[in-house]
Design goal:
The chain is mainly α and about 110 residues long. It has two domains: about 70 residues, no CATH class; about 30 residues. Helices cover about 65% and strands about 10% of the residues. The chain contains three helices and two strands, in the order ββααα. The longest helix is centred in the middle third of the chain and has 30 residues. The chain is elongated. About 0% of the residues are buried.
Amino acid sequence: MTIRRVADTVTSMRAKLDISLPTDLESWVQKQTDQGGYATASAYIQQLLREEQQRQLRLGIEAKLQEALDSGAPTPVTGATWRQSQQRVHQRLKDLAKERRANGTNR
């Protein structure tokens, strides 16, 4: 399979991507396009890519959820724990600002 990116016109927000496929795979894509009611093979491929993007996003979320589950027993958040968290964040920001001023990188 060969993939080549071709720049579209300046006025378009799309890019063109030419893909070379073996004959049997090209036939399969055309069959899926026709059976799926897509106007073009491009529309079919775009849908496949969107579905793959969604699948990868879902896998990332599931991995983060699993990481949270594996991190141990949950800690209840109360008003006091929330205030402590806010204080820690404020202190970190103050420390960073102080460090930046000391290093002359206050941006």
